[in-house]
Design goal:
The protein has 399 residues and is α/β, with parallel strands linked by helices. It has 14 helices and 14 strands. A hairpin with a 2-residue loop joins strand 10 and strand 11. Helix 5 runs parallel beside helix 6. The protein starts with a helix and ends in a 5-residue tail after the last helix. The structure holds pyridoxal-5'-phosphate. The site of pyridoxal-5'-phosphate (PLP) has 14 residues, from helix 5.
């Protein structure tokens, strides 16, 4: 058959692919420990699930307003006011089928062929393809481990051209867990405001943050910064609601209207039942979020300790999200049974084959020296997984 040139350049999501490989190995009886998952291992809290059942019984089973029902938009506006001290009008808010879909709609609604979008590494795997699919050009800027993987104002300034439309920021970050501070964001906003550039601030991990690290959005820097920012958030990570597919955005009303048009001609609206449940998630009790964050915190400390005890591995303590991103380049150039390990993809393949441990190679996030571990699993599984990795690494022979 035939495929568009556009689609031929796009690879499927590497993280979803690893999940699929790991699932099929499990199905054939292999006991795989999957550090590849990008979703909380908890069930959606009970009060949110009950609300969905109630919504079905009450007949909330029809098409809704394209950009989300007014009650959910109100709950989102209230969330921004309460958590971020940001005020928005309903016309500035839109609900889509997940945060990923928000980003897709945003790119489709704003980018012309050749428009540039600045994406710092290590980046979330879907940013470059979403930009590509809209005809835009991802401009990748390397950040350094020594800078906590954060973009500096100078590097940003240097990357901006007359074609730059957006900078994508993700704090707390997937895959590094880094969290930008208020002063770092103020410095970036200063550069943004000097040029005609907007910011996509992906804040999906806002609630998963440790050690009392304050969360700050670049939209909070000033009214001017807020006017140039599209805050992207969603329910997947904070409320363990990945399968419900609810994400949202707040920003410029004209762009939101454009995004609503894109959505009206594609998905029509987000799921009606999930929208009702989302109101409960945002307005209801928040203690389950804290319970999950406490569990993530225990796992975070454990996995960082274990990884740093492996010879040649350096693993920083992340301030947010549920990933660690250690440097494994020490093990590149080593061999096993005659096969040379040239980079993160080879090492992950070796560890999957030899140790039955699934991991995402750093190359998928734009930095080949690293490997991403999700620790969204019980402590026993984390322990067993790291034990296996240690054992498999010991079998490697140096060059
Ligand atoms: C999980 C994730 C999202 C969005 O997930 P949805 O399930 O589509 O809401 C967005 N950005 C990052 C960085 C993520 O890790």
């Amino acid at each position: 058959m035939f495929l568009s040139e556009r689609i031929k350049t796009i690879k499927p999501s590497p993280t979803l692919e690893i999940n699929a490989t790991s699932a099929s190995m499990r199905q054939s009886g292999v006991d795989v420990i999957n550090f590849g998952v990008g979703e909380p291992d908890f069930d959606t809290p009970e009060h949110i699930r009950s609300e969905a059942v109630r919504a079905i019984e009450a007949g909330y089973t029809r098409y809704t307003a394209v950009g989300g029902i007014p009650e959910l938009k109100d709950a989102i506006i209230e969330k921004f006011r309460r958590d971020n001290n940001l005020s928005y009008k309903p016309e500035q808010v839109m609900v889509s089928c997940g945060g990923k879909h928000v980003l897709y709609n945003l790119a489709q609604a704003t980018l012309n062929p050749g428009d540039e979008v600045i994406i710092p590494t290590p980046y979330w795997v879907s940013y470059p393809p979403i930009v590509h699919l809209a005809g835009g050009r991802p401009v990748i800027i390397k950040t350094k481990e020594a800078d906590d993987f954060k973009l500096s104002p100078d590097a940003l300034e240097e990357a901006i051209t007359s074609r730059t439309r957006f900078l994508i920021l993700n704090s707390p970050s997937n895959p590094t867990g880094s969290v930008y501070s208020r002063s770092e964001l103020e410095a970036l906003a200063e550069v943004i405001l000097r040029h005609d550039v907007c910011v996509v601030s992906d804040e999906i991990y806002e609630k998963i943050i440790f050690d009392g690290t304050p969360f700050f959005s670049i939209a909070q820097v000033s009214e001017e910064a807020k006017a140039k920012t599209f805050v992207v958030n969603g329910l997947s990570k904070a409320y363990a609601m990945t399968g419900w597919r609810i994400g949202y955005v707040a920003g410029d009303r004209e762009v939101i209207a454009g995004m609503t048009k894109v959505q009206s001609q594609s998905t029509s609206n987000p799921n009606s039942i999930a929208q009702q449940a989302a109101i409960e998630a945002l307005n209801g009790p928040q203690d389950s979020v804290l319970t999950m964050v406490r569990a993530f915190d225990r796992r975070r400390k454990y996995i960082v300790g274990r990884l740093n005890a492996i010879p040649g591995i350096h693993c920083p303590m992340p301030a947010g999200a549920f990933y660690v991103f250690p440097n494994f380049s020490h093990y590149f150039k080593e061999t096993h049974a005659g096969t040379k390990i040239k980079g993160s993809a080879d090492l992950c393949e070796y560890l999957l084959r030899e140790a039955h441990v699934a991991l995402v190679p750093g190359i998928a996030f734009g930095d080949d020296n690293f490997i991403r571990f999700s620790y969204a699993m019980g402590l026993d599984a984390i322990k067993e997984g790291i034990d296996r990795i240690e054992e498999a690494l010991e079998k490697l022979v140096g060059p």
